[in-house]
Each structure stands twice: as C-alpha cells, then as structure tokens.
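Long-time lurker. I teach an intro course on protein structure, and each term I like to show students one example going from raw sequence to a predicted 3D structure in token notation. This year I'd like something fresh instead of my usual example. Would anyone be willing to generate the tokens for the chain below so I can use it in lecture? Attribution to the forum is fine with me.
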Amino acid sequence: VEESARPMTDQASTDPLLQPYKLKHLTLKNRVMTTSHEPAYPEDGMPKARYRAYHEERAKGGVALAMTAGSAAVSRDSPPVFNNILAYRDEVVPWIRELTDALHEHGCAAMIQLTHLGRRTSWNKGDWLPSISSGPHREPAHRAFPKMMEDWDIERVIEDYATAAERMQAGGMDGIEIQAYGHLMDQFWSPLSNKLDGPYGADTLENRLRFTTDVLTAVRKRVGQEFIVGIRYTADETQAGGITAEEGIEISKVLRDTGQVDFLNVIRGRIHTDPAMTDVIPIQGMSSAPHLDFAGEVRRATGMPTFHAAKIQDVATARHAISSGLLDMVGMTRAHMADPHIIRKITQGREHEIRPCVGANYCLDRIYQGGEALCIHNAATGRELTMPQTITASAQPRKIVVVGAGPAGMEAARVAGARGHEVTVFEAASRAGGQVLLTAQSARRSEMMQLIDWRVAQCEAAGVTLRYNIYAEAEDVLAEAPDVVIIATGGIANTTLYEGDEPDHVVSAWDILSGDVKPAGSVLVYDEAGDHSGLQAAEMAVAAGCTVEIMTPDRTFAPEVMAMNLVPYMRNLQRDEVTFTVTKRLLGVQKKGNRLCAAIGTDYSEKVTHAEYDQIVVNYGTTPLDELYQALRPQSSNGGAIDQDAFLAVRPQTLVRNTEGAFQLFRIGDAVSARNTHAAIYDALRLTAAV
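-- Reply from a regular --
Happy to contribute to a lecture. Here you go:
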C-alpha cells in the first residue's frame, strides 16, 4: 500500500507532537521541525533541484517547519566553507522562491538561517578575502587567523544582514533565523573571543550584544514587524571564561526585551573544536537529548517560543519535550535524514516502522570533511532526484535469493520484499548483522545494530524468509530455483601487507573485536585501512590494560573515521598514553623469542628500523568472500556481469552473456570490494529498486 494512501489514525487529536502551534501569524501544523543544517547540496551557491527535492521529501513526510540552510552567508567575506547558500547574491531570490513554493505545497512552513561565519571559515574559499572576527584568535576547527573588525566592517556586515533578510522575504520565506552560536555574532558575545575595545567590545554585556541588536534593528527596518525573525544561539558555553548559564538566561531576556525576536532556538556549548561540537551535537554512545532540560529553563525564564535540537532522535523523547512544556517546537533533524516520513508514519499508526537514526553521524562528519551529507543507512537521502524513499511494487514478481544478512544483504532483501518478490535470505551466522555484529561489540557503538534490526523487522513484515545457520553452497541456492541471486557475503579480514605477503604471527582487528584473541602486553595496532576497526581494537587493548601503539603509513591516523566520530576514541585513548605513530609502514614481522620483531619503514626514505611487541594487530580492510559467486557464475545468464549504466540509472539489468543460464547473478557490498556500510546499502538499493 502506498504510504500516502494510508488513512490517518485518531492519534492526531491527542498526540502532543501532532498539535498545531501558532507562531505570530503563522500556524504550524504540528510541533516537529528540521533545524537548520547545510547538507552541502547547493550548486553555485544556489538551492537548486537537488536541494529542493531533499527538503520537499521531508515536507511530503509531514514535518511542520523546514529551517533551511546551515547557514546562508550574508557577506562575501563569509565564504561557503560548507557549500553554503549565498544569500548575498540577488540571483538567489528565484531559487528561494522555488524552494519555498515546493514546501508550501505540502503545508510545510519555510524559513532560512542567515549568518556571517566570522572566523569559522577559511580565507582560501570564495573571493579569497580575509576572515573577520571580534578577536585575533583563529577557530581551531577552521584554522584561519581573522582580521579584527574595524568600524566600517561592522557597518557593512550589519547592512549585509538586512539586505539578505530582504532577499529571503522576497523569495517567499515565512521567516528567518539568525545564527549566533559559534559564528560571528557569538564571537562578539563571548568574552573568550571578543577582544575589541569601544562600543562593541567585551567590557560589558550590552556592548557584546550591540552588534546583534544593531543587526536586528536593521533587519526589522527592511522586512517590517510582521515577518518572523528568530535567533539560534548558545545560552551556556560550558567553558571557563565564556558565557555562563546565568548570563545566557540574561542574554535570552535581553533578546526577548528587544521586541524584535519572535522565537529563541537554544543550544548549549561551543563548536570551535571537534570535541566541543560533539558535546553540542552528540553522536552514538552519548546521552540522548542532553540539553533538553536546559532549553526548558530558557523557555520558563523568558516565556518566549522556544525551539531546540540535539540528539532528539526518537519520537518518545520528542513527545516528552512537547508534553512536558520544555519546548514549543522540537527539532528532529538527523532523524529526518534517516527517515523523512516520521510524521506521516505517526499519523498512520506506523510509528514502529520509522527508520531509526543510529547516531553514526556519517551525515555531519562528511560535511565537515568537505563532502555532502549522506545518511549511513538511508541511501536515498540527498539523492531524492534519483533514488526512491518509498519502494514501489514490481509489475513482475520474481523469486530472489540473497546470500548474506549484513547491511547489503538485508537492504537487498528489504527492498526486494517491498517490491513484492518472493525472497529467501541465507545467513551462515545465527542472526543477521554481518560486520555490524563486530562493530556493536563496543557498547558505545551498539546503536549500529538498529540499522540491522529495522531491516529484519521490515523483511519479516514483507514475508521474506530468513534462514540462519546455513553456510550456503551452490546446491543450496540452486535448490530454490531462483530468478535472481544476490551475493552479499561480505569479506574476511585481510592481514596481507601492502604489495607484500601475509606475515606470520599477526592477528586481525576482527580477531580482537570478536574476542577470539585477547589483547596481550605491548600491542602494535598497525592500521592501514584507517577505519573504525583499528581504533576499536586499540580501545579494547587499552581496556585490557595493554600498552598500545597505533601506527599508520598515512599522514594522519584513522582518516575514514572523521572528525566527530574520532572524538570518543581520542577521549578514551588519550587517557592512557597511547602512542600515535604516523608515516611509518610495517614491512614484516619475525618471531624473536616470546616477542615479535617488527620491521618498520617509511614511504619517505629507505630507512628501516625495528621494534619489539608482544602482539601485532593488522587492520587492512577485507578480502571479498566470493567463492559462492565464482561457483555460480557459469550457470547464470549474465555471468555475474552488471550493466553499469543501468545500475547507475536504476534501470532493470538485462545483460545476457549465457543464453543457457537459469538466473541472474549479482554481488554487492564488501563481496565486491572493501568499502563501508553506506556503500553496501547503496549498492543494494540501486540494484534491487529496479529488479
């Protein structure tokens, strides 16, 4: 049944989340919003088709308010370090109009966040202008040493805010949100970053807020009193010398008393470093909704309409935020990246079908590494123009066998089942999960199992047959008389050294994670893959009381883990004096008595040194488990070949290389090559959405 055709339940009349909310003249149809975030989809600084389709999908799903951009830049010396929308260009107006109209068509209010990034950017982007701020110190996360603003800079930027707001109003937006926290405004607010003298200096709170009040005054002169204007800000920097919670409440009251602010969007903390930002925007293994009660304190102290978001990833927590009077609108942003149809599923009595956000933070980490936002287990997010968020039934039901119940196999089975095919899954283990079962061995990453558990539930609801404890051979597959066979058997840990042999006496990171091998004594974790497995193995070795060295031939360690996910690892590993060694390559291992002697080289010279350890753990990706695939190729109609053009365009596979073949054969995920969870799921969706 198509989701849009399902009837609404009576819950709409009683559920706190589904009650309308009146903000000034604007009636929001429920209490759930997506807060501002930059998925990095703009093209030439404009929110074109891809950007519009992303937000429109969430509007279709029922969200009441989309706070777009994260944030749109008001000035040329606030260059688009996150591929931001360029609100300082006149040509943005028609694109904003198209975005606004698309959201309004689905009853979703449209607002946009405006900012000047200040020091939170780079000088070598955009027009190569120096970054500017209220002080000389660089932001560690972005490294640019700013120019301290002069009076004419301040006057110019105030005018830029007003002009940008006028453009957004001309584009049909229902309102704007001015971004303060971590950006230029907050750099004026914080005693830690404001080093100016005079009327905008740090000597009094009034002076620190003067830039903000001047901006609000200028904006109101342009857009009038009816246009909605709010502000997103930190009401507690949680750092000595910064804005305290008490001062944050005072600031909140000052903003209220200007009479020019229509809502407060509250956060807590700083975002100037990766660890600080991770505390503001928690990831998996961290507490859910850690700042919710504090946001409620601001609401009680000010009586202002109050919005907030910070790891409110499940409906129960969001419902509590509204029913307890802590918030007026609750932000579920990453949750809507995982599932854009949360509200629709609630209203249709299908809350149990919501795809959960697992807190992997693949979305934000990719943005902060200069990429585009992607959800680790919803491969259609950000690809709404080409990939389906809702699976449609096939006109020709077929019999499909999937071998392997990891992320790739379970996604293939889920999609094929939703399309109405008869699906059987073979899995050698006693439960689904594949490599995720190893990941979840760390309690901090146990949330990852939700991406498997959700797919198991979806498969069971679709009538997929799941057969565990079967190491499938060719005869097992052929006995099913399938039309299509999908090999998703993943890979096995690879301990072969680069362009060399597999050394004796080493163990894999998987051996440590699974518990098959216990960490012992002095441990070298040689990490050439740079993904989670190496750091997880190091964590387990530290927890076992070992002395640990992490070595990589790269310039940086664990580059695949990325910024915010690296934080909890570093907090654990730096407590115990773990040694991090970069630009060193493991060349070989020899037994020396009861110890292991490692030959260590470097790509930068011919120098070779030696060091002894009790245990050497190698993390170097996986080798495909493809024996079954190779065995079935001669009997398949396509010989295992894939039409790459059809695959990329999500069209049916029609290649025939063997007219005697009885079935089509494909392999996906790590059974092809070592990649990551998102790649495995994307493989499966692209293939099976067209089967």
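Some talking points for your students: The CA atoms of residues 27 and 585 lie 61 Å apart. The first strand starts at residue 21 and ends at 23.
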